[in-house]
Each structure stands twice: as structure tokens, then as C-alpha cells.
TrEMBL record:
<feature type="compositionally biased region" description="Basic and acidic residues">
    <location>
        <begin position="30"/>
        <end position="48"/>
    </location>
</feature>
<feature type="compositionally biased region" description="Basic and acidic residues">
    <location>
        <begin position="1"/>
        <end position="23"/>
    </location>
</feature>
<protein>
    <submittedName>
        <fullName>Pumilio homolog 3-like</fullName>
    </submittedName>
</protein>
<feature type="domain" description="PUM-HD">
    <location>
        <begin position="119"/>
        <end position="481"/>
    </location>
</feature>
<dbReference type="Pfam" id="PF08144">
    <property type="entry name" value="CPL"/>
</dbReference>
<dbReference type="InterPro" id="IPR011989">
    <property type="entry name" value="ARM-like"/>
</dbReference>
<dbReference type="InterPro" id="IPR016024">
    <property type="entry name" value="ARM-type_fold"/>
</dbReference>
<dbReference type="GO" id="GO:0003729">
    <property type="term" value="F:mRNA binding"/>
</dbReference>
<feature type="repeat" description="Pumilio">
    <location>
        <begin position="183"/>
        <end position="220"/>
    </location>
</feature>
<dbReference type="InterPro" id="IPR001313">
    <property type="entry name" value="Pumilio_RNA-bd_rpt"/>
</dbReference>
<feature type="region of interest" description="Disordered">
    <location>
        <begin position="626"/>
        <end position="745"/>
    </location>
</feature>
<dbReference type="InterPro" id="IPR033133">
    <property type="entry name" value="PUM-HD"/>
</dbReference>
<dbReference type="GO" id="GO:0005730">
    <property type="term" value="C:nucleolus"/>
</dbReference>
<dbReference type="GO" id="GO:0006417">
    <property type="term" value="P:regulation of translation"/>
</dbReference>
<dbReference type="InterPro" id="IPR012959">
    <property type="entry name" value="CPL_dom"/>
</dbReference>
<keyword id="KW-0694">RNA-binding</keyword>
<feature type="region of interest" description="Disordered">
    <location>
        <begin position="1"/>
        <end position="73"/>
    </location>
</feature>
Amino acid sequence: MTLENKSSENKFPKLDRASNEHIKKFKKSKGAEYGDAVHKRKTDDADGKFGQGHLKKQRFDDSGKNFKNKAGFKHGKFDHQKRLEKPDWNKMRQDTKERKKKRKQRNVGGEELYDTFTKAVKLWEELRHSNCSKARRLDLCREVSQLFSGVVKVWIKQASGIRMAEHLVTYGDEKVRKLLFDEINSKVQILEIMKDTHSQHFLQKMLRHGNKEQRQAIIAATEGQVVKLTKHTIACQVIELAYSEFASAAQRATMMQEFFGPHFVYFKEEGIKCLADVLKKYPNKKEAVMKDLQKGLQVLMQKGIFNNTLILSLLREYLTFCEQQEKQTVIESLEDGLLPVIHNRDGSRIAMLCLWNGSAKQRKTIIKSFKDHMFEVATWDHSFMVLLAAMDCIDDTKFLGKAVLDPLMKESGKLLESEIGTRVFRYMILGRNTTYFHPDVLNVLKQGDCNPYSKKDASIRRQEILTHVGKGLLETILRNLEYWCRNPQWTLFLGPAMYALPSADLKRTAYEALAKHCAEKMPPEVNSLMDIAHSAKMLNYMIAKDVENKKNKMPLFSLLLLKHAHENLVKWLSCNRGCFLCVRLLETGVGRVVVAVHDLLHNHRSKIAKMSDTTKGAEILMQKLEQTKDVVESEDELEENDEMIDGDNDKTNNDEEEDNEDGDVEMAGDNVEQSGDEDNEESGSEDAEESGEENDEEAADENDVESCGEDDEESCGEDEEEEITFKKSAGSGKVSDSDDDSDDE
């Protein structure tokens, strides 16, 4: 018989001429019985002898001759007297109890064993209570185990019996466990028990509480049947427990080999621990091995039992070595069901592979499946790696911000309480920084850099993420500033985080908050920041970054520190770290900073000279002061100051105009000379036009202002330079207010 004919036999027969003849033949043989039944049903329904609800389908075979039901049918007749009789409810209840008792007796092995089972249940009720002493419990376990003798296989398949057996294994001694296990210690019985709903719990208890020999017997029974047992929805639980917790490395390898094809089911090979070893040893068998593995995994994913540790490890290796088209097939089936498995190490790697090899639409589907669980994903042991991979490969940063970044920043307080959540927070801000992430973690993330679907440059993506979380980062810094300044784990992060703020306004706010904190007077029992090694190192880092801030036209932390904390800086000279801090200020190369430091230390040179004999920092500071004594502010710095001051004055004028109801702001002559603001000239001319008073004196004033702005540039520059440079007031070195405003560019 050909394959086509064989497959056609399994299908339903077609309604052709042969089947019609078969139906006619059936009607002819059962014609009389069929016709009488139809006629009887029609006549009874027409006479109204019984309602349609009492009709039941008749059986037309030999077994239906004695058919009878509650309504009184027998041999096609209706018994009216049977229907009118009142039922005896007591008798019915008694019959129900007897049937229930017989059913229980049948389940436990017969009437004789039922009494023994009942006695065992009563003893079990006593031993399972928490107030039962250990000695009494052990005696009860031994007594109940004797009742189990010879019927273990039968009783552990019952709901009550398996609960008793679990307690015996948990609280009993080695003799009790041996007595129970020896009755089912064969491969056939273990495989049978493993597939039963109740009795499979007995094997799990034996794996947890049994000795080494008993565990080895259970694992050895699965040899050659691992693939079939893994596909079984009940037996897979025992396989999962045995593989993940109790199997040795060699046993795990043999269990995994059975998925690579029939050859490895019967011929186990040493040295093959994973799919990579098979493909390396047998490169010509790659197609056959991948096909066999695909068949096994496809069935498991369809049944929804791919969360097994063994299956996850196989699925991870399959995604690593299969072709791109096959990867797309797997991703389509997994894209919305990865949440239950990403807490596992292999599950998180599978999710990362799906993100790296999935299209933009599939990536969004994966991230959307984590909705309402984003905080849990960010704080689980292995799932946080999925979010790090998402930040590296998703080009749509707007979607990434709404789906991932915003939910995490809203709960940043709770996120920072978790050690793993802190990693995600730091990665959002600083990316792949080796100071905060182990090289092994970064090597795993680098595997997705060459994925075929990410087109945006990594630096652009990183900058867009920083722009999105900038305000939230600033709020977090200001909220935790006092703690972070003194905690050694956070001082390493605080400096780079402030430097990473994307805009000048955010940086200025953060720098000024830190500078004011440095200027605060601490009680005697609290150490200043300069007395704490890691805090002083953080301040030195931020001062060193002012060189790059100046190139990028960003606010300078050094100027704000000199403005707010100049008094504390003088006090810090008494310690070595304070001297090195001043050295760091001089090494910035910024003229304004160098001049301010010289002004600050002008009256303290003798003190520094005395300290130079015993303090290395003071010695280096004296050398730096001599080297930088001729440094002055450059013309570029003056021009930058002019632009910054004009911008700050414009902002101040706009605020004042909003406060005044009339909207007329008259600037005094001194303010006009200091700022040289052209907007004030325009406002003055508009007021003159409205009033209609045009005299020679006002014209002369306007000409004077214009001449100051155009013709007499040198004289105006001298006046402005006096406001820009640092005021020398008894060697205080305090930065003027105009210079503070000049940094807001």
C-alpha cells in the first residue's frame, strides 16, 4: 500500500456512491427497528403524553433492548405509575454513600486495604501538626510506613496517599525513605510514576531528601527518554528539578545530547557539553543536528513548556547558531512571551538575542510585553541585562523613553535602593563605563553591536537618552546630594553624572548646589568634605573637567566653588588635600580661575611657605603660584563674559518687565554705561516718541550713549573689565556677581 493510500485511510471517508450504498444497507438491516422508533416518537409527541424535555435518543443495537431511564421508558413503553411514585430520599442518600465508599475502596486496592488506609490517615493527621514533637513524629512516620508496605505504588497515586508519602519522606529517617523507595525502584515503575499527576511529587521529594544512590536511580531511569519526558506536561517537572539542581555536569551533558538526534540518544560521547561542541566535532552533521533540535523545540514551544532550564539552554544555543530566517521564526513565536523566563540566566540571554536579531517592530513588541513590570525587570538578578541591551540597540529613543526610561525615572528612589536597579540607573547615565561594570558584562553587551537592524550611531543614541533623562537625573542628584557627597560608592558616580548633564542650565544648577553644600558650616562632630578622602577626590575630578567644560562653553564648577566656598577654601589650606585642591584649580589653565586663586591666597603666602617644609601639597602649591603669577584673563574670556553678561541682563530685564503693570522700564545712566545694552536704548527712544518731547538735552544723552557703545570702545572696555574681573577686597578672592552671571551661557 502506498503512502497516499495509507494516509487516506486515516481521514474521514468521502460521501461518494459507495458510502450511499453502505447507508442504504444499514437502513435495510435496521429498517424495522428504525421505523418503529421514529413512529413511536412522533405519535407520543402528538398525543402529548410527555414533554420534549423527556425525550432521549434511542439506541438501535442489541444493548438497547433493556434500556430504561428515570422517566419510565422500557421497551419503548412509558410507565406512568413509575413516574408518579415519590422518591425515597433517605434510600438515595444511603446508596450514594455506599457507592462513594466502594469507589474509595477500589481506589486504594480493595475493601481489606481500605481499613488500613483509614488508619494511616488518622495517624498522618496527628504527625502533620506543627505542635507534634520530633520524637513522636518520627515514631508515627515509622508506624505509617509499615502500613504503606506493599501498596506504595497504589497509594501514592491518590490525593491523600501522596500527601502522606511526602510527609514520610520529609520527616522520616533513612529507613523510612528506603522502605518506600525500594518498592518502586525500577526504570519502568519510575517512568510510570513520573507521568502521574499525584505520584510525580513523590519523586520530587525523593530527589530533595533522598540519598545519593536514590537520586542517581531516578536520573538513570530517564536515560534515552529525556526528549519524550520533557514533552510531557507532568513529567517535565521532575526532569527540570533533576537537571537544574541534582544532576552532575556529566549527567547534564548526556541529557542534553539526546536532543541532537537519534545517534546521540543511543551513543553518548564524552566531551560534548553543548551544541557548539557537536558542531565543532561534526561540522558535516550541522544540518541534521539543527533539524532534529528544531523539531524538539518546536513541539515544546507549542505546548508552552519552554521555561524549563534544559529547554532554555538548548533554545539559547539554537538561536546562536541557526540562520537568520530561522531566528525570525523563533522570535515571532517568543516575542510576547518572554517575561516569565527572563529572570533566568538563559532566559535573559534569549531575550537579548531576540532584541539584537529582531526587527524594529519585534523589538517594540518585546518591550511592550514588559509593561507594568518594568521595575521588576530592572531589579531581578538576570533580567536587567535585557534593559541594558535594549538601550544599546533600539533606535527609536522616543519609544524607549516612554516605555522604559520614564517608568524607571519615576521610581528612581526605589530603584536606587536595589543593587541591581542601581546598575540600570548608572547605565542610563554613563553607558559602558568600566568603573561601574565588570568587563564580562560589557563583553556580553558587545555581542549585539553588529546586529543588522540598528542603524543609528551609538554616540547619538547615548546623547538622546541623556537628553531624555536629564531633568530626572538633576532632580535625583539634588535629592540625594548630601548623602552622595559622603558615600564612597556614590562619589565615584556623582562627578561623572554631573558632567554628563546634557545642557548648560542643568549643569549650572547641579554645580551651584554642590558649591553651596561645600560652603555650608558643618557642626564639630561632622567632617568637612576635604576631611573625607573620596569626597576630596570627587571635587578634584570635577575641577579637572572644567578644561573640557570651557571648550564646550559650559559652566565652570571652579568659578562657582570660588564664589560660594572661598572662606572654606582658606580653611582647607591647613590640610594636605586642601593644598592639592588649590593646585588643581591652578592647573585648569582658565585665566579667571587662576587670577581668583592668586587673589584668594594673596594674604596667606607666608602660611603656605611655612607648611611647605612639612606638607608636600603646600610645597607644590608654592611652585604653582610662582609659575602662574603672570597669568591674566585672555581676550576670548572677556568676549565670552560680555556675551554672558548681556544674556543675563536681558533675562533680568524681561523678568522686571513682567512684574511691572505698565511695562515701562527706565534704566539709570549708570546701569546703561555698565551694560551697554542696546535694548535699553530702544526702550528709551520709544518713551521719547510717546511723550513727544524732543529737545537737545535728550538728543545729547542719546548721542553720548551711542558714542560710548561705538566710538569709545576702549573706555567702555575698561569699565566692563572692572566689573568682570575679580574684586580685590583685602585678599578675599571672592568672585563678583557679574562674573557669576557670566557663566550662564
